[in-house]
Batch of 2 targets.
Target 1
Amino acid sequence: MTAMDPRRWPFTRQALAVQALLVVLVLAVSFAGSAYLLQRQIDVEVGQRALAVARVVAEDDAVRAGVAAASAAAPAPASTLADGPVQRAASDARARTGALFVVVTDDRGLRLAHPVPARLGERVSTDPGVALGGGEEVSTAVGTLGGSARAKVPVREPGGQRVVGEVSVGIASATVAQRVREALGPFALIALAALVAGLAGAALLSRRLRRLTLGLQPEEIAGLLQGHEAVLRGIAEGVVAVDPAGRVVLANDEAARLLGRPLVAGDAVEDLPARVRALVEHPDAVPSLAVLGERALLLSSRRVSRDDRLLGSVVTVQDRTDVELLTRQLDAVQAVGTVLRAQRHEFANRLHLVSGLLGSGHVEEAGDYVRTLLATGPLGTGVAGLDAVADPYLQAFVAAKASHARENGVQLRLGEVSVTGRIADPVDVTTVLGNLVDNAVTAVRGGEGAVVEVDLVQDGTALVVAVSDSGPGVAPHVRADLFEPGVTTRAAGDGGLGLALVRQVARARGGDAWLADGGDGEGLAGAVFVARLPGAVAGGAGAGEQPWT
């Protein structure tokens, strides 16, 4: 992961700056739009106010009479007009309304009233044509007294409709601007409050973003994501990450394959297998073996935290099926090898004895000794009827297990044997037979008159293995789940994998394994386990008489 350029702002600060800029921009645009609309509205209101003042002045009787008289006569000098009734009426109206000017003209456009007396009798600076034509006009213009919003209305003769002049009223632009400023004051305060709230919200959002990303920048997050994908997709182990709330955060494809179900983010821990749930509830526990479906899995978990903040736990799943099978097969081969070495040593000793007898001329004694050896069957097995087992590999394995049983004070004996063919798959057969015999020896070890009996029955090409013992049997409360991973009857609580592997191997061949008698039946009074292995025997029709169901 590349380090971030220290000259660049962190992403959270960039986000804060962009959000602040957006808030300022939106408020500026909103404020400018509001000011423009308010200016337009006040312009209209001031224009209507000027129009109302102009109408009132134009309806004044003194104004109408004075304008009519002035229009009918020759233009009068400014000194005469300054003291005239029209000037007085216009001055009073301007004083009452605060208008910039109130100007009255005759029908020639000559001023009869004006705020500046010296300009009386002069022609107005703006065109009075609309008003003199009988219309009303509202506009904004710059005249001799400055910019203003103005209105012009016609003045009609007393008692008639003939237009004899016009009244022009203006309200100063400074007055309009002042009203706009007064109206925009509250808007400015609201905009300032919105700006402060927006900046505070942006700061809070930036802080939350920094907390959610654990202080990581986008470049770092992208690098972590790439590494995360590479690791999850590249390793041969299954990985399941669970958050503190007990929800699956992520899981790779290998975990879904090994656990035998799809895993998606948001799945509850309660939906996972029991062993996985136990590891999630008690992380950092000792790794444990479990059998799920047809696989032997090694499960382990570990807590994950950052800056003293618990992020959850990670469960790793390793496929140990082949390793477990090979380990147990290796144990069986080693046991067979040990027995064969012992038999080889014993056979060599017996040959030395025969050689000595012959060498010393005791031919008759040598013959008797050989006949005695032939009558006792295989060397050193102590298992009556072992010569009935036709397959040498199976015979040697049973002999090895008999030797192991004797070391534990247990007698291993053969019951019914009807295997006439050769074992086609000695690995599966010895795995199943070895686990069943080991479990039986463990169950009766240390007991008085401990006996384990093995029945080997050929049914076509299938081999049926039955192992019974003289032990206390299987407790009723565990019989239903006896072949489940982790279920054991041992007092120490260890084990719980052998029977699961037996059933796994049997079912993989199309057969099955089951508890035929829990210990309350006849026979040796202990438990009876049966496994059927289709296709395990090559050649021979077999007995097919024993109903192993």
Target 2
Amino acid sequence: MGFFSPWFFAALAGVALPLYLHLLKRQTRTPKQVSSLMFFESRTQSSTRHRRLHYLLLLSLRLLLLLLLIFAFANPFINRNSATLASGRLVLLVIDNSFSMRAGNRLEDAKAAAIRVLGSKGAARAQVAAFGSQLRYVTQPIEDQAALRAAVQSIEPSDGHGNFGELARAIRALAETVHTPIELHLFSDMQRSELAGNFTDMALPNNVKLTAHAVTTKPEPNWTVESVDAPGQVWGKDAKPVRVQAVIAGYNTPAAQRTASLVVNGKTTATKAVQIPANGKATVDFPALEVPYGFSRCEIKIDDADGFPADDLRRFAVQRSDPQKALLIHNYGDNRSPLYIGAALSAAAQSAFVLESINVNEAADRQPSNYAFIILSDVNSVPSLLENSLTGYIRSGGSLFIAAGTSAGARTQIPIFGSRIIETRDYSRIPDRFMSVGSADSSYPAVAKAEGWPGVKFFYALNVDPGDARVIARLADQTPLLLEKRIGEGRVVLLTSGLDNLTNDFPLHPAFVPFIEQTARYLAGSDRQGGAQAVDAYLELRNAREQGQAVEVTDPEGKRPLTLGEAASAQSFQLTEAGYYQLRLANGRQNMIGVNADPKESNLDVIPDDVLALWQGNGGQSSQEAAAPGSTAPRKTPESFWWYVMLLVLASAMAESVLASRYLGTQREET
């Protein structure tokens, strides 16, 4: 027998309380009347009063009640053979089916070990679960051996990354609903990368006994394609050559030469040899990626040289399409803005946009809907016909960028954007002769890529009333610098300075190119969600304005995982398999994503025996000894009998109450 909480025995000191209370009872004498006290001799009264215990049976019950309470809170238990507790325990078989279990015969070995444990479970209920990135229960707690074996055999390998901290969290949640002892049998390759960042996250409740069944006991050598750096989109048939770079890694491997191949739509287009150091990494470059128009399925592969071929490739998808048209409307005689904006787009966006530059007098015959976005730069006055045309274009979903420049200073409000101009601020007249950026919202794409515009000097800006517009950046004196406003279904972005290298020196700084590139991509809505993603990542399917519009998702097996209701309302979608997903988003755009397993799954190093023994709570016993499925030693399971002791406490309390009432009644009668 043992105690789960032996420190409660410190309360034994409280047993002295009933003794003390019983000794406080004073001796009483019946008073007798005397005619006179003059014949009595005077003497000193003793300070020690005679005391003795009364009501011994009541005292015994009170002492017993306290002792039983202390005993109950110490939570006593006895170790009993698991076979004798068959009806009162749950045998939970968790089979690791994460991506690393695809190596060799690991998953088949785990299933075979689970079936052997099922054969020795006796009459206890059992439950089967699979553990990839999450714990998934395959059966309910049942005793049917045939159904349990079939459930074990039905488990298929997944592409998720396991985390034992997530497993422990799920088991803790189960233990709150299952109050019987749980025998947790984990069948896994015990990959070191599956350990939680904090060991306390893997703690299990007291009623859970973990037994780890490792299907392998030593790390195995493995080469893998760890990462690929490639663009998600290329533009036009005469686009610049696109470079693809991949990192090949070896875990527990000797120095070796591997062959890396670039595969486009199932056809190998380039091959290179790469020398990988022992237990190290190497980079391989493919300088020219040629893909046809539309979406292409691309891979970087290495030759098969280990027992884990599933991670010898990395997928990514590339889309080739024609460049989008953009329109720049500038003030008459302004030649600087078209020069700087055009050069930035050409340098950064890989010919993603074709910029058409006209002055404001030539804009009347242009159809705004033919352009991905429009820029107004330093325009003094906007003809009413053009303003109405642009407003309708924005309300129907178009995008406009306004660089106020100096010409707008003569107006009372910004055209189309609608903000009131409070004053113009000429910083060339202050002591420093310029103003820097004071604060910026780093979550905004154009600001994040430009790193907050360090070192840019602003000589002139308009102080405007933001109203309901979102302020993205402010100057050091709190003047709004970059703002965005939604108008109808579209958006307008306002820069209260200019892009002509007169109102500031922004075009001369390295941050100008990524600012123009990201602003153009943001306004055009041409940023793909990425040509490659990891398993278990989430993709955004729609924004708040696109509710009710159906989306379509096709998984790597050609199935459509979304129901009709989900296709009309789901905000995001989780990528649960490795392969290529095809998507038709709520805004009508098509997309393709290459999905890959987490690179951590490729490191087949195992958890050290001492760490595994600590997790199991079996002291210095090795994982092989603890997990031996054929062991004949009887398995002990602690069984608490706290409730039985509490029933004795209740009985003692009732007896004490009855007896105390009886003595109290007797004492009143004597009085």
